[in-house]
Amino acid sequence: MKKTSTRLADGRELIYYDSRDDVVRDAVDRRPLDPTVTTSEIRRDPLLGDAVAIASHRQGRTYHPPADQCPLCPTEGDRLSEVPDSSYDVAVFENRFPSLAGDSGRCEVVCFTSDHDKSFADLSEDQAGLVLEAWTDRTAELSHLDSVEQVFCFENRGAEIGVTLGHPHGQIYGYPFTTPRTALMLRSLAQYKEQTGGRNLFADTVARELADGERIVLEGEHWVAFVPYAAHWPYEVHLYPKRQVPDLLGLDDAARTEFPQVYLELLKRFDRIFGEDEPPTPYIAAWHQAPFGTLGEFDGVHRDDFALHLELFTIRRTSGKLKFLAGSESGMSVFINDVPPETAAERLREVASK
């Protein structure tokens, strides 16, 4: 992998990740851009104890542009985009309309390919492996920023999810705090460790799923994917490396090599859940990594107790119908799942590639 860092016209950082070492990235951003102005602010909710990012400047962000005006496609002639070069393998840049910025963290966009009409599932194993390397490198770089305590790599796919740009891409958020969802995991981890005399909740959860087998979707030598026992979403898969590590940096070469095979197969299965003639399945793919800040508030828990994993889920519950977060989910954070996890796992095994 070759990494080339440069700057866009308004001063934002752009990084190219190339599979070849002989690629030269010296194209200049020719757009007359003013410096980016953000109004991000983090506010604490005193009742719930969580944080909300107030980012009113995002109201003006690009919204469903036609394909020939996509800002994530490479620059071509006089059609100028966020990527000045005429092609790229993987490109990462600071978001022009960030939810988090400055002392409040950082937001980046990850373009998986220069091909506007592809999705992640269409990538080759080499391309998917390069995206994994980019995620890993950005995790390492952002972890060194004083304003970042937790790094979150994710992909929103589909208009139903709220995606406003059709080009295959994901995002990376560098939060200035430990997120509420991760904090819940860490509290459960601490309680379980105390109650069981030092056992690890993540390790025991994966072991139980492997022993039971009913909810296993896909298993490789170094990765295992399963529908969790208490899945929140109609079709939800958790993907774990079998050797527990706290973050993407901890993956060994064997796990990195196998990851594209397993993950691309999972994405292909997601697109087949509802039938061959159905539109692409909308999904969220979310990497969960240990925070880089102090874990002092979680008694007896260390970074190495956390287990890196990816959670992949769709909001589509059946053909033509979405799972809405209505009163119970939105008002009380109590999910009601219409699809039994065992049924979801069985369906995801049925649609395996031939």
Which tags fit this structure?
354 residues; alpha+beta; 11-stranded antiparallel sheet; two-stranded antiparallel sheet; 23% helix
Task: Provide the low-confidence segments as ranges.
Answer: none
| Content-based structural category | alpha+beta
Distance between the termini: 32 Å
What is the molecular shape?
A: globular
Output mean pLDDT.
95
The fraction of residues assigned to DSSP E strands is 15-25%
Helix content: 10-25%
Counting H and I runs of at least 4 residues, what is the number of helices?
Answer: 6
Account of the 3D structure:
The strands form 3 sheets. An 11-stranded antiparallel β-sheet has the order 1-2-5-6-8-7-12-13-11-10-9, sandwiched between helices. Strands 3-4 form a two-stranded antiparallel sheet. The chain has 6 helices and 15 strands. 23% of the residues lie in helices and 22% in strands. The chain starts with a strand and ends with a helix. The mean pLDDT is 95.
Quick recap of the structure?
This protein has an 11-stranded antiparallel beta sheet, sandwiched between helices. The longest helix is centred in the middle third of the chain and has 18 residues, at 125-142.
Write the layout of secondary structure elements.
Layout: E1 2-7, E2 13-18, E3 41-44, E4 51-54, E5 90-94, E6 106-111, H1 125-142, E7 150-157, E8 169-175, H2 180-195, H3 201-212, E9 216-219, E10 223-226, E11 235-241, H4 253-270, E12 283-288, E13 309-314, E14 316-318, E15 321-322, H5 327-332, H6 341-350
Antiparallel strand pairs: 1-2, 2-5, 3-4, 5-6, 6-8, 7-8, 7-12, 9-10, 10-11, 11-13, 12-13, 14-15
Helix pairs in contact: 1-4
